[in-house]
Amino acid sequence: QVQLVESGGGLVQPGGSLVLSCKASGFTFDYYAINWFRQAPGKEREGVSCISSSDGTTYYADSVKGRFTISRDNTKSAVYLRMNNLKPDDTAIYYCTAKPYYCSGSDDYWGQGTQVTVSS
User: Residue 103 has what DSSP assignment?
Assistant: First the structure.
């Protein structure tokens, strides 16, 4: 059974940090790029970051560059999104998806999402 499970969300004050995890099972993780996107109420879906399968090339939205870092551990079939200096605009549900090999591909698998709330 294919699964992508996000965790690590929560309530954090502005300027704080969180680390989101996306753990995969049921498919060959090494062959997939892993993408994070977020959805806030009343806003369009926004691609946040992606890491490719082969050479680990990373991509970031301009809104999170310099604050977020994506990494992967193929031995654990997991991708991590470290989020520093969080802002209220980062409040959203964060989802991870799996794309074959490259970040430009379509989404084959989806997680259920984890809520991130940035508020004082």
Answer: T
